[in-house]
Hints:
The chain has 10 helices and 13 strands. By secondary structure, the chain is of the alpha/beta class. The protein has one domain: NAD(P)-binding Rossmann-like Domain (Rossmann fold, 3-Layer(aba) Sandwich). The strands form 3 sheets. Strands 1, 2, 3, 4, 5, 6, 7, 9 and 12 form a 9-stranded mixed sheet that branches. Strands 8-13 form a two-stranded parallel ribbon. The chain is globular. The two termini are 23 Å apart.
Amino acid sequence: MRIIVAGASGLIGTAISSSLRSAGHDVGTLVRRPPASPDEFQWDPGEGRIDDSALKGADAVINLSGAGIGDRPWTRARINELRSSRLAATGTLTAAMSRLDTPPAVFLSQSASGYYGSAGPAVLRENAPPGSGVLARICVDWEAAAHEAPAGVRVVTPRTGVVLSRSGGALGRLMPLLRLGVGGPLGNGRQYWPWITLPDVSGAFAFLLNSRLSGPVNVCAPESADVNSLIAHLAGALHRPAVLRVPAPVLRLVMGQLADELLLASQRMEPAVLSEARFAWQHPSLGQAAAWVAERGPKT
């Protein structure tokens, strides 16, 4: 397949692009700078500009583009950027597809577990309603923008959970502390985080490309876990204690609204669609995932 990836330079995008190339696919990437190789194509999603030759002849488009959720404080300007960067990128891609005589057959446009807001211990399958809050509103509009793709394009909106990686990602700042034995749960630790390892994210996207699935898909592991369990398993695999809990008021003081929506929110997602389609996880259990994260080796 010829696959175009937007947002290929991030943690998930790098892993997915590498995995697809290893599987023999022709992968092109969209870049904001001048292209440095034949498989790069320039675009400026903020201005709605794209090299239309990028999508010509493409079988699929993967959209991972958007400003980082947790790497800056949530000022009003930053929240507007989180929203506009996602909607502009998605709109630029769907508009480019509409200009083609033969648009790509598949459009995988990233969404997130934030769609569900904070739902406590309730099990969240793909048919659950959206929650409230900044992330939920962004995700609702983000998914709607993806469905502006031309008729006949199979649109999938993967609602990806917390990605476990050996470096970077959602636990990028916590993992070094855990390795030193000075990390611990966040808040009371009873909030559910829908987790998945980076290799399983890549595997899920490849699976979705070749499936007949459409619409929202929860991209997380089949074993649910609260933060207490998640941190305990990771610390155990590293043979380190994890007793230095960070209280919720401290997180709110340091991070403001970001703490409530990203760290303290509870989303007990169930990957019902992937399970019913018989997707095979490499790391379906938290024990397996923690062991993989703790291994020394390539940072993927």
